[in-house]
Amino acid sequence: MNSHYYAVLMAGGVGSRFWPVSTRSFPKQFHDLLGSGRSLLQQTFSRLARFIPPSNILVLTNADYRDLVLEQLPEIGPGQVVTEPAMRNTAPCILYAALKIRKMDPDACMVVAPSDHWIEDEAAFADDVSRCFERASRTEALCTLGIQPTFPNTGFGYIEFDRDGEDPDGLKKVAQFREKPDYQTAQAFLRQGNFLWNAGIFAWSARSIVAAFEHYQPEQYALFASGLEHYNTPGEAAFIAENYARAANISIDYAIMEHSDQVFVLPASFDWNDLGTWGSLYDKLGKDPQGNAGAGETILFEHSQGNMVRMPAGKIAVLEGLSDFIVVDTEEVLLVVPRSREQEIKQWVARVKDAFGPKFT
């Protein structure tokens, strides 16, 4: 296991599209959504620990979730939990983590990975990231993993890569990043053949990503670099508490990846699901002959098909004449929406909060 390999595990999101199971007080990364006996956070940590020393894995999360992270990951120490005192998107927290890692190890390579993805072939994942690390360790390359599209998905961003040139490492030069398209545009992307889904998984040297921030986001770099003497010391918390909220609210894609001419994508060799919605979970769960996916042992279906149902343990549910719905029951909330309108769940969270207060969201 290479001691210069590091990971930044992103675990600060709320996962509102998985409401009402995922809430602000207990978001989806801390849930066992697949019935594996481990939360998504625990599964992701285990996947990274296959090829990265556990002591080199940092978990970036909201300050409110610090105790949850330490409870679910007893393998790490408190110093490995990096908390954000304010929500500022992905660029500030990645820069913050990169500066900490570079200070610990100037030769570090680091992967940035979300905590809530499903990846079955963990060996292939480790191999793909290691190939990116190999490139990043000897060049200034900023690498990302792209997923081969299987259908014209309008919920993901896309990565367009250059068709020209054969790269010995299998990486492809990125031409541009594309926003979430409409259906017709997504269809055109698939026909064109040089587009991949953007999975939000990045790999680079700590040195290169810090240099990219210094070049493309000088104000952001200056803000965080001013606290370099405090990083990995008792003074770090006070510096971050005072300065973090001053950071620009911007994603790593907008801040760096869309500007740099050193961005490469490796088409992933593993199956992937972002587990971003109830529909994506439906795709991964086992189903009865009528296509119903039931997370719970006491669900009876009659003349029903294509439903995604999640019930509390021990509670009986009977569904008759229902087709293509999401039904989620918790202690305090019952959600029943068509699967075709799952993207509107996020809007319902806001409406429930306005009507009944934050307790239920």
List unreliable stretches of 5+ residues. none
Instruction: Tell me which oligomeric state these chains represent.
Output: single chain
Query: If classified by CATH, what would the architecture of the largest domain be?
Result: Alpha-Beta Complex
The tally of beta strands, per DSSP, is 15
Shape: globular
Helix content: 25-40%
Number of helices: 11
Instruction: Report the C-alpha radius of gyration, rounded.
Output: 21 Å
Give the H and E element order. EHEHEHEHEEEHEHHHHEHEEEEEEH
List the main descriptive attributes of the protein structure presented here.
alpha/beta; 4-stranded mixed beta sheet; 5-stranded mixed β-barrel; 2 domains; Spore Coat Polysaccharide Biosynthesis Protein SpsA, Chain A; 11 helices; single chain; 361 residues
How do you describe this structure in short?
With 361 residues, the chain is α/β, with parallel strands linked by helices. Helices cover 30% and strands 22% of the residues.
Overall description:
- The chain has 361 residues and is an alpha/beta fold.
- It has two domains: 5-267, Spore Coat Polysaccharide Biosynthesis Protein SpsA, Chain A; 278-360, no CATH class.
- The chain contains eleven helices and 15 strands.
- A hairpin with a 4-residue loop joins strand 14 (325-329) and strand 15 (334-338).
- Helix 3 (90-104) crosses helix 6 (206-216) and helix 3 (90-104) packs across helix 7 (218-225).
- The radius of gyration is 21 Å and the shape is globular.
- The relative contact order is 0.14.
- The mean pLDDT is 92.
